[in-house]
Amino acid sequence: MIRGNIELVTPESVQGWIYTEDEKVREKLLLAFWGDKCVGSGKVNVFRGDLADAGLGDGHLGFTFPISVQREAVGSVVIRIDGSDAVLLQTGASVEFAGATSKLLDPSALSRQMAALKWALKHCRISQADFDFLRMLWSFGVYERGLLRRNENGDITITDAPLAIASNLLESYIGLEVEITTVQGVQPATFKDHMAIIAGNAKWAPVVALTCKARAVVQVQEGSHVRGNSAAGSEKSFGPLVSYTVSPENLVVIDSRVTAELSLPAGKTIEILTANASVM
């Protein structure tokens, strides 16, 4: 888990703090990015008494180093630990990627996928459950999965672990074993930025799972991950937003390319589970 804050960004410098769960962040190399361009680097080597008082490691969690960006790009700068895909965003930042529209799913590719999916079901290459999941996800860009089930005797309700269910679903989507990375502390203000980063990173599957210990609502422009649909690649919504619930009893799998908005109770956050494909 990574926590932290980018506290100040100018065209010439960036400063803030970062903390990792293993408390081994001191002297780590940080990279500043604007889109896919590295605009500066520096180390975690500033002592922060306020963080030490808060019980975050030994307090050596601060950073400040030079960067070089245009003034209009300041709000889009993000920080990444060298060798890691986890990203530290500015609150309310606007992250953009060149060519993002080109990453939308092509309608002809979707038609071929659907035809192949039907063939796989017909010839018993996939289960009915996987067929239903993939058909829904490819068509609408979102899939809702309940986590409650009855035990074998039917007298006790069991809540499945979100991580296990998400792993199974993402592996079904990719067709390979996956390594799950959890992005914690996601708020409505940074939700779209996280989704944009995932959609723009070739190392990750474009599909993620959302979990929440409270109750969140994700409003989705269904089908907007497909090029040519009315809302695809546009901030303007031309159709109704469909609400999906993320809660301890409900997991939502969503394509990071869809148009979506997150609503949460004050002070609450969600987790985004991303998948890195790896051949075992």
What are the salient characteristics of this protein?
2 domains; Jelly Rolls; five-stranded antiparallel β-sheet; 280 residues; globular; alpha+beta; four-stranded antiparallel β-sheet
Description:
- The chain has helices at 49-53, 107-122, 128-140, 162-174, 188-199, and strands at residues 2-9, 13-20, 29-34, 37-43, 46-47, 60-66, 77-81, 87-88, 142-146, 148-150, 157-159, 178-186, 207-211, 216-221, 242-246, 250-255, 259-263, 270-277.
- It is an alpha+beta fold and 280 residues long.
- The strands form 5 sheets. A 5-stranded antiparallel β-sheet has the order 9-16-13-18-12. Strands 1-2-6-5 form a 4-stranded antiparallel β-sheet. The chain has a 4-stranded antiparallel β-sheet with strand order 4-3-7-8, with no helix packed on it.
- The model is unreliable at 92-102 and 231-238 (pLDDT under 50).
